[in-house]
Design a protein that fits this description.
The chain is mostly beta strands. It folds into 3 domains: about 60 residues; about 140 residues, Galactose-binding domain-like (Jelly Rolls), CATH 2.60.120; about 100 residues, Immunoglobulin-like (Sandwich). It contains 1 helix and 24 strands. The strands form 6 sheets. Strands 7, 9, 10, 12, 15 and 17 form a 6-stranded antiparallel sheet that branches. A 5-stranded antiparallel sheet has the order 8-11-16-13-14, with no helix packed on it. Strands 21-20-23-24 form a 4-stranded antiparallel sheet, with no helix packed on it. Strand 23 and strand 24 form a beta hairpin. It starts with about 25 loop residues before the first strand and ends with a strand.
């Protein structure tokens, strides 16, 4: 090598046989949010630190619904390892109770007052230009549904897109439920700034409730911030219900959809390869879209009308990773949603 020159070489790094491993396992939910996931690290130097994808920091996390949960384990020496587990729910046929994007109206949702507003600004909307803004922390920082008769459902899931602005760490917003037409509410889920979300980053909120339910159920989202500048923008709220049934699922689905109302069903759910989708369809073409729980597009398919008003489509989901997904059917005027679970092949 001459003075002022350079030399190159290569180094081969070999992972040691006793490298830290996360070893993540789980127990599937049998109804609602009752699954668990556990990280059992091996090698490395204890004690270990744990950080899960949902922000929790214990070795075992519980009260989990269907989905994929990832844990990063850090040893005392600073080594890290990551592992994941996918939990799947069983035993129900899900259908859409309501979906609302707020483009033309509030739908089944109602305006809580001064600190709640339907905003026309695409920057805060997930789709279209409209979303619901909740700000501050007052009795009007709420959006609520009208009474919903859910007596036929075993479970109900609320899923929505949200983005926040100016929330301080520790400030939060809540999902609340009333069983008596709004006379009283119970907080069932809390999203906390700095733990569950960061400002100006779009995320998906979801929570599953177990029945039994009443004929006067109401859902309410409420901001718990500290000033008018602290706002959460809610969009594309989907409420799905779980119906347990026995017998031939195809026959059950046809019986339910034969009343001519707007419906969407999918079976078997969970599935490992093929998903049969049945829905009412007008004369217009429909688009079937599969998204992950963050709203990312996974696959889509155009379906022409068959002229009968009822449509059946086979979706090949073998290439999907195990976990929960949202199926959207859009015919140009109406969006319908359904959540399904993909199991391992």
């Amino acid at each position: 090598m001459t003075a002022g020159g350079s030399a190159t070489g290569s180094v081969t790094l070999t992972q040691p046989a006793n490298a830290l491993a996360a070893n993540v396992t789980g127990v599937n939910p049998s109804g609602g949010n009752n699954g668990t996931a556990t990280a059992s690290p091996t090698n490395g130097t204890a004690p270990y630190a744990y950080l899960w994808s949902n922000g929790l920091t214990t070795a075992t996390i519980s009260n989990l619904g269907a989905g994929t949960y990832t844990c990063t384990v850090t040893s005392t020496g600073g080594c890290t390892a990551t592992g994941s587990v996918t939990l799947t729910a069983t035993g129900c046929n899900q259908q859409t109770i309501n979906s609302q994007g707020f483009e033309t109206s509030w739908g089944i949702w109602t305006d809580g007052g001064t600190d709640c507003a339907r905003i026309n600004n695409a920057a805060w909307a997930n789709t279209g230009t409209y979303s619901i803004r909740l700000r501050d922390n007052t009795n009007t920082s709420v959006m609520s549904t009208t009474n919903q008769n859910l007596t036929t459902y075993n479970q109900a899931t609320v899923t929505f897109s949200f983005i926040t602005n100016s929330f301080e760490n520790g400030e939060d917003f809540w999902l609340q439920v009333s069983t008596n037409g709004g006379a009283t509410y119970t907080t069932v889920k809390t999203w906390v700034a700095g733990t569950n979300f960061s400002n100006n980053v779009r995320q998906t909120g979801t929570h599953t409730l177990n029945g039994p339910f009443t004929s006067t159920m109401r859902f309410r989202l409420r901001a718990d911030a500290s000033a008018d500048d602290d706002a959460v923008y809610i969009d594309d709220v989907v409420i799905t219900g779980c119906l347990n049934f026995t017998g031939d699922p195809q026959e059950e689905a046809r019986t339910i959809t034969s009343n001519g109302t707007s419906s969407l069903f999918a079976y078997p759910n969970p599935t490992s390869d093929q998903l049969t989708v049945e829905f009412t369809q007008s004369e217009s073409p429909a688009t079937l879209v599969v998204m992950d729980m963050s709203g990312k597009l996974i696959q889509q398919q155009k379906v022409e009308s068959n002229g009968t008003g009822l449509q059946q489509v086979q979706l090949d989901v073998r290439n999907l990773q195990p976990g929960s997904y949202l199926l959207q059917v859009f015919d140009g005027t109406e969006r319908r949603y359904l959540q399904f679970v993909k199991m391992g092949n």
